[in-house]
Amino acid sequence: MLLSANTCQNDAVRALPHSTRYSDIGNIQGNLQEWSCHAFFWDFLSYENLFTIHYSSGLHFKLGRAKLRSISTFFKIRFFMPFSQSSQLSSIVGFLEMLQPTSILDIGVGMGQYGFLARTNLENEHLFIVNGANAIQRPKGEWKVRIDGIEAFKTYRTPIHDYAYNHIYWDDALDILPKINDNEYELVLAIDVLEHFTTEQGTAFLNQIKRVSKNKILISTPKTFIHQEIEANPFENHRSLWSELQLIEQGFVETIPNDSSWISVHSSVSVHDKKITD
Question: Mean pLDDT, to the nearest integer, of 133-158?
Answer without folding.
Answer: 95
